[in-house]
Design goal:
- The protein has 196 residues and is α/β, with parallel strands linked by helices.
- It has a single domain, classed as Rossmann fold (3-Layer(aba) Sandwich).
- Helix content is 26%, strand content 22%.
- It is built from six helices and nine strands, in the order ββααβαβαββββαβα.
- The protein has a four-stranded parallel sheet, with helices on one face. A three-stranded mixed sheet has the order 6-8-7.
């Protein structure tokens, strides 16, 4: 795919600017459909998705580097755009780790409308055994949720089970890891002998 012509971007016929309820739209720059749900996604995020300005750079990377038949482990998937697009490219079911269960219906919708499948785990991925569950701090703008809260923001704390990277790698044998965990990537891959 070539870089999109942003001069043509606005106005877009399929852009959703009054997002209320549930909608399925064509993603502007990739051959996929995206579900929007105002009960889960705020209006700002829905607008960004509807004009193709949410994760576009990531989607272009997946299109460039993923190959058919590759098994993807998506760590931190937000609304399922990553999972749906990766599965469309590879033609394989994938594994999605998303600690917050709140966006899971949107992830499932995005998989369904693109006729692809994934196993979705509501868990926090760790490299070393620590505890059975961890506190995870959910923000109203869910992509700002995190393991260690900022004292200036408001969060709701939830208990999230943990899964271990080793056990997932052994059970599913993915050959591609797609990781989007808002800065926690560094700690995740500080493993003895692991080259980042």
């Amino acid at each position: 795919m070539d870089w999109p012509d942003f001069d043509r971007l606005c106005p877009r016929d399929n852009a959703v600017f009054q997002v209320r309820g549930k909608h399925v739209i064509d993603y502007p720059f990739c051959e996929m459909k995206v579900g929007l749900d105002s009960d889960i996604l705020d209006e700002k995020l829905s607008k960004l998705i509807s004009i193709g300005d949410y994760g576009l750079e990531d989607l272009l990377l997946y299109e460039k580097y993923l190959e058919p038949k590759e098994i993807v482990l998506a760590i931190g998937d937000g609304v399922g755009i990553t999972a749906a697009y990766c599965a469309k490219i590879t033609g394989e079911s994938l594994i999605v780790i998303e600690p917050k269960s709140m966006p899971h219906p949107v992830i499932e919708k995005n998989l369904t409308v693109n006729d692809v499948e994934a196993e979705i785990l509501s868990a926090f991925l760790l490299v070393e055994e620590d505890a059975e569950e961890l506190d995870f701090y959910c923000h109203s703008e869910f992509w700002l949720s995190k393991l260690i809260p900022d004292f200036l923001e408001e969060y709701t704390s939830i208990r999230v089970p943990q899964v271990f990277l080793d056990s997932l790698l052994t059970a599913h044998s993915p050959n591609v890891l797609v990781v989007d965990v808002e800065g926690a990537e560094v700690g995740l891959f500080e493993i003895k002998g692991c080259r980042t």
